[in-house]
Each structure stands twice: as C-alpha cells, then as structure tokens.
C-alpha cells in the first residue's frame, strides 16, 4: 500500500471517529481553547469556519484579544491567505463551501488554529489532502515564528498519522480534555 492509500484509509477511519465525537458534543473544548489563546493576546490569530463535523472554534476566536482572520482558498496548490473576521461580519460562500468575510483586510497570522481529520501523539495531523495548511505553515514559518494549534476531538487521535516530507507538525493540540504540547 502506498502513502496515498494509507492516508485515504486513515481519513476514512478518522472521519467516522470525528462524526461519532461530534454527535456526543464538544464539551468544554472551546473554553479550553479560549483559555489557551489568552496567552497569545495581541497576536494575529487565524481560525476557521467549522464545516460538517469539525469542532467549533468560533467562541474562542470571538474572545481573542487581537486581530482574527479566517482562511481564504485562492486556488489549488496555493497557500491560504487570511481575511480579517469579527463576529457578525458579512460572510459569503468561498471555495469548498467554506464561508469567508465579504470584505476585510488581509492579515498574516502568528497563531493558527488548524482544523484536522486526525492527529497523533507526535504532533502530526492528517488534513483533507489538499496540502493547504502544510503549504501555509511552511511559508509563514519561513518568515517568522508561528504557533500551529490543532483543534480536535479526543476521538480523532490515532496511533500514527501517515506522514510525508511536506507535512508540517503542530505545536499544540487542544481537545475537550485539555492542551498538549509537542
């Protein structure tokens, strides 16, 4: 089995685990994330608009003391850009049906809340397969320090995420049971 097949198989299992966890609710996960982010006050934060069964970071994003951006997909094979977001701002459907602000300044994050399908104890994540966050984190980290914070349900942890050379490691993972540093 090649790496692409291993990742596809891992995604199938992880989506099922995430769906079951989503049905049970996220408990105190957003509050734990907000408490963690309080230590990043004043820094530019990138969050995301949750889709389907993704864990929801929006209340933690709204509580952040500093600029907050959300990802905008410019096209296949490109890094993400982040448009400034605030609660209640006008939104429109963007690529992959992810909602993005209708207008707003482009911001460059120092802290990125990273959605994921699965993660492991080494700090690696399995995304959707487009490589958007890996390219983005690599580019940002080449310019300045960036903290990558995975946000997930405990049930999304797997023994070992299949990785390749381009996969970017998380610095932290926040789940409903707490924060882990890598």
From TrEMBL:
ATP binds at residues 125-133. It catalyses: (6S)-5-formyl-5,6,7,8-tetrahydrofolate + ATP = (6R)-5,10-methenyltetrahydrofolate + ADP + phosphate. GO terms for biological process: folic acid-containing compound biosynthetic process; tetrahydrofolate interconversion. Its cofactor is Mg(2+). One of its GO terms (molecular function) is 5-formyltetrahydrofolate cyclo-ligase activity. It comes from the Bacteria. It is an enzyme of class 6 (ligase). Signal peptide: none annotated. Substrate binds at residues 49, 54. NCBIfam families: MTHFS_bact. This is 5-formyltetrahydrofolate cyclo-ligase. The lineage of its organism: Bacteria, Pseudomonadati, Pseudomonadota, Alphaproteobacteria, Rhodobacterales.
């Amino acid at each position: 089995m090649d790496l692409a097949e291993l990742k596809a198989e891992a995604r199938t299992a992880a989506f099922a685990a995430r769906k079951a966890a989503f049905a049970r609710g996220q408990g105190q996960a957003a509050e734990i994330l907000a408490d963690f982010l309080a230590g990043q006050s004043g820094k530019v934060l990138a969050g995301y608009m949750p889709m389907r069964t993704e864990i929801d970071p929006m209340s933690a994003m709204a509580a952040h003391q500093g600029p907050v951006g959300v990802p905008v997909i410019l096209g296949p094979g490109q890094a993400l850009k982040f448009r400034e977001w605030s609660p209640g701002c006008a939104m429109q459907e963007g690529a992959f049906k992810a909602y993005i602000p209708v207008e707003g300044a482009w911001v460059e994050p120092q802290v990125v809340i990273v959605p994921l399908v699965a993660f492991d104890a080494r700090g690696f994540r399995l995304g959707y397969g487009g490589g958007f966050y890996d390219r983005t984190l690599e580019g940002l980290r080449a310019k300045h320090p960036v903290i990558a914070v995975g946000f997930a349900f405990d049930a999304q942890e797997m023994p070992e995420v299949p990785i390749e050379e381009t996969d970017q490691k998380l610095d932290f993972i926040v789940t409903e049971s707490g924060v882990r540093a890598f």
